[in-house]
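ERR on first pass: missing label on line 2. Operator R.T. fixed the label and resubmitted. Corrected input:
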Amino acid sequence: MLHTVNKSPFERNALDACLTHAKKGSAVLLFEDGVYAATKGTAPGNTVAGVAKDLKIFVLGPDLKARGYDESQVVAGVTVVDYGGFVDLVVEHGPVTAWL
Amino acid sequence: MKFGILVNEGPFNHQASDSAYKFTEAALAKGYGIYRVFFYYDGVNNANKLSEPPSDDRHIVRRWSELGKKYNLDLVVCVAAALRRGIKDELLAEGFRISGLGQLIEAGIQSDRLVMFGD
Amino acid sequence: MSQGDEPSFETGVVKKFLYLNRKAPYGTVYALEVLEMVLISAAFEQDVHLAFVDDGVYQIRKGQDTKSVEMKSFLPTYRALEGYDIEKLYVEKESMEERGLTSGDFVVPVEVIDRAAMGSLIDSMDVVLGG
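pass 2 clean. output:
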């Protein structure tokens, strides 16, 4: 399964809800305001880096870039993808659960 | 592989419609099929042909119409959600049609993946 | 329900649909329109599941009275679900307890399951809506 999170972890609990329900080996894509959870030097970023061994974590590059972050500011263990990569994740990982 | 796309938010207020558009465009570019794009909740406002954003902004409604025309997409607006929000046939931009919520469930059944964009 | 007269649709395909309810009622429209999806998917004879997680558990709390706010109450629709053969309703234990609720606080019969079981339920679905 692919889980998506599009909310800032500072505003809502969507990231936590996703991470506490996603099964080991599942993929998680952070996009829209969800991308802040992938950034270095933040508490959610540390959480995300910590679960990256059990979950495959991805972040949408165009949304990062729009918000003034580049790949070097993404925590270890998180892979940056573009919209084509988002499509590939949906193809490869099966049904999608959107944590809104 | 075929995708169903669900858009739950209106244009401009939330990035959902932009993300859905970019995803749909990328899926089509990779040669995948789009079974249907279904607009629900405030997402029905994406079909309003009276939308007129400033010229230096993206034209979300027209962009969906043009993508629909290019790839012959089925762009469906939920009738109940649309009527609540004053979206009727005479307001529909090119390429959109109004139909029942059953069209969403059918998209969930017939598509290999249903991808939802919302708030 | 404006589509209450829709006939049932036979597609020959039965998928596992999950409606994941994580939003409280009334403050936003999401919970109400999810219910409309639930009823339509029953008409398509799909394997329908409803999950109540986070603030979603408030949707089925007893005693809702919306007269003064002039909004449509959810409760009659929830009570009607059984008539559509929608009986797979799951409440997440942790979400329920965090909000000071017990299984006796709900208007419909539900199965209370813990977060790990909820994660497995979500993982086993073909189509997940709501959220």
